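Example (one chain per record):
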Amino acid sequence: MKKQLAYLCIIVSLLTAAFFYNGTTSADTPVVNNAEQTYQLAEKAMFYLRVLKSDGTASATGTGIILSPGGTAVTAYHVVKGAERMEGVMADGTVISPVKVTKYDELKDVAVLELPSPAAMKIKDNAYSYLQVRKNVVKHGETVFALGYPLKNTNIITEGIVNTPAAEINGRSRILTSAQIASGMSGGPLMDAHGQLAGVISGSLRTMNNIHLIINNDDLRSLLPAALK
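Predicted structure:
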């Protein structure tokens, strides 16, 4: 009787293992997000970026992306070129000031920003929400989402595909995407469907309708602190 019971336990264990194993583990299968889920992931990790004149009015606007809990952020360089004073406005209306440029590359169109400490800004849990930078390159046809601030207090998301992961544009390799981009979204995130930053919005391609330019992560990493690469 004991032997039969032992055999029965072994069989049940084997059947249970077979039932739960399907060739991959949940850890091996990346989560795939839709547009709504992607927006929720990115909303608190980006901000409306204002370049200010001496009278406090904006001379230029764009979008910034937070990449660390301490406040390291990035944007497109052309948004902040020549800026002396900048501030960020978060989705909840919190004004982040001052915002400083710590490193930039005009050819790559990347600027690294430093936000005030989260404690100074009274950010919840003393940490900014942030996005992780994707390590591997995007692929032809991959679904992506572009986010940014074409209007003050109005962040939007658009969906498209990667038209090509590498196009030679003005001496630089750029990702081309069909995700729609409007003025003010420059510096915003291009997100993949797994919730990671796939690139930084640079602008539009005038020679192709509805095809837009994205700074790739290799160019972005070349300016980031070692801890974020």
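Caption: The chain has a mean pLDDT of 89.
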